[in-house]
Amino acid sequence: MNAGKRIPATGKSRRCRRRMPNGGSLLSGIRYPLSAFTLLEVLVALAIFAMAAVVLGATYVNALNAYEIASRRNEYEEDLRFVRAALLAEPSRDKVEEGGDLNLGGEKRGRWQADIASTDTADLFAVTWTCTITDPARPAPNRTTQTFLQLRPTRSDPVERSQLLDNARKRILEIQGAAP
User: Fold this and answer.
1) Of the given ranges (26-30, 53-57, 172-176), which has the lowest mean pLDDT?
2) DSSP label at 114?
3) What confidence tens digit (pLDDT) does each residue in 127-141 have?
4) Is 10 in contact with 28 (CB distance < 8 Å)?
5) Beta partners for 25?
6) Residue 125 and residue 155 in contact, taking contact as beta carbons nearer than 8 Å
């Protein structure tokens, strides 16, 4: 069957042997790969990996910073809601215009003051509310001013209220076409 081919004593065929370019032979039976990465290719791969690591690290730090900012913002808005609730719960107009000071936990303080103005509608008031929240952990206090409408019959002057109600009745009758 293999009359023309000679099989070496190791039991491997001739195809496994390689010859060196200068005519010498490699160790019999051991295969060496002909291709490998050069030093330049390895350095380029390391540089690409390093840049990717820097970009991913910066992205991670930015995500952490954004989370921290959002957390502080939520805490600040919660403090504002608490101080606003104190304003809305105060029945006396004089005390509202005088303002107040609240302890928000820890060393945080909320100071507020409001200006109340009557509107053309009975029992409806325009409130300009200013709140300053101081926190020793922050470099400067946060100050917020909001204007909103508040329906409070208890804050109305009885004479002014009856006059506004009479004016509203007259406007309704004029719209209906039944004005006197």
Assistant:
1) 26-30
2) E
3) 999 999 998 888 888
4) yes
5) 19
6) yes
Residues 112/145, Cβ–Cβ less than 8 Å = no
Q: Tens of pLDDT along 26-49?
A: 555 566 666 888 999 999 999 999
Name the token pair of 102: 């609240």
Please report the sign of the dihedral spanned by the C-alpha atoms of residue 41, residue 43, residue 44, residue 45: positive
d(CA 127, CA 61): 42
- Tell me which residue of 156, 152, 130 sits closest to 143, measured CA to CA: 130
Model confidence, pTM? 0.57
On whether the CB atoms of residues 87 and 113 are closer than 8 A, the answer is no
pLDDT band at 2 (very low <50, low <70, confident <90, very high): low
CB atoms within 10 A of CB 135: 19
